[in-house]
Amino acid sequence: MTHIDPVGALRAMLMIRAFEDALARRKEHGFQLLSSGEEAVAVGLVSALGTGDQLLTGGRSIGPALARGVAPERVMAELLGKSGGMNQGRAGRGHMSDPQAGFFGAHAVVGGNISIAAGVAMARQLDGDGGIVAILFGDGACGAGALHETLNMAAQWKLPILFVCNNNQLSVSTARDAALAVANLSDLGATFGMWARTVDGLDVQGVAAAAHDAVRHVRDGLGPAFLECTSIRLRSHSTTARETRSRAELAELQTHCPIRRHAAALQADGTLDDAQLEQMRQDAATDIAHAMAYAEASPYPTAQEALRHVV
């Protein structure tokens, strides 16, 4: 059974990569956490969510926001601090949100979004509207007390929440195996009796299939679920952080790029040829050039706008 349009998935991943590459090339790009190598996790996860569901993320929020359907030009403007952003330039990468698009928001504090997600899930449960919440976080948050406390509460109250760990295997520069004792991070959910699974986060169709299973479990009222997606990070921790991995390590990681992998599979089965793939790349670059132009043309917020909602 196909859980995601394979060509649409590739198009979404190419758009995210083109967006982040364009942002990184801009001299004044601000402090950003990019998700190159993790696109399949966001795109596969979002394919399982309905329009009435909400997605929350940590600080590495650009890819998930775009995958959820927030307009690229509004995301770019927000990242550049412009009034055309979805939060009028006041939130930036660390706190941007668009609940109407199903993106409840980002949180810059590691693990800080997890208990908030439980609150959103409880509200959905009390409203009885059938919506669920997905919370996306990294392996760096798996040692945080907030996660363990929230897992316990979510299991106890059967909250409609899907915990998704994007395990890129590095917490800044600390290897996952050096920081966390469990064999699989999904074991954290299993400890509390949750539906739990670990999947290859570089396989967008595999992520989509697992995410659909998890969402069905949660939506059916069977309690929360925990999905671990093992991925890679092709860039340094942030746009200001020094890369701690060798050139050889980075080159080897590039051979596992989820976009290359998915594109190669579509070419191998005859879905796409070289010309079609190149056209998709060009289309993504064109769309992001338009998004950048919109953001560049957008003014900075006035002092009055910047202080609106500030108490």
UniProtKB/TrEMBL annotation:
Pfam families: E1_dh (PF00676). The keyword Oxidoreductase applies. Keywords: Oxidoreductase, Thiamine pyrophosphate. The keyword Transcription does not apply. GO terms for biological process: pyruvate decarboxylation to acetyl-CoA. It catalyses: N(6)-[(R)-lipoyl]-L-lysyl-[protein] + pyruvate + H(+) = N(6)-[(R)-S(8)-acetyldihydrolipoyl]-L-lysyl-[protein] + CO2. It comes from the Bacteria. GO terms for molecular function: pyruvate dehydrogenase (acetyl-transferring) activity. Its cofactor is thiamine diphosphate. Coiled coil: none annotated. Residues 18-303 form the Dehydrogenase E1 component domain. The pyruvate dehydrogenase complex catalyzes the overall conversion of pyruvate to acetyl-CoA and CO(2). It contains multiple copies of three enzymatic components: pyruvate dehydrogenase (E1), dihydrolipoamide acetyltransferase (E2) and lipoamide dehydrogenase (E3). This is Thiamine pyrophosphate-dependent dehydrogenase E1 component subunit alpha. It comes from Gluconacetobacter tumulisoli.
